[in-house]
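Example 4.3 (complexes with small molecules)
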Amino acid sequence: MPRIRCLQTSDVHLRADRPERRRALELVFDAVTAHSADVLLIAGDLFDRSCDAVVERAFVREITDPNGYDLCPRCALVLKSGQLTAHLSACSGVT
Ligand SMILES: [Zn+2]
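Answer. The structure with zinc ion bound is encoded below.
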């Protein structure tokens, strides 16, 4: 049976005027890559407010894409590249 490595974080509350929160997510993502995790589950409040999501989602992509991971646009998962297409067919869009 294949093993899936999953890490979890929550309550990052990204917003443009709190750069230390971006740094915290970068440290989480360092752990994701160090452990070659298959999935990072962000179990709530990645963004502080809905108005922060547009800008901060671009920041999340800046740290995930170069490392071979994709952020699901519908839910709270970061997956290894190549897994997103299969995931999207099953993703219910829970936010
Ligand atoms: Zn999803």
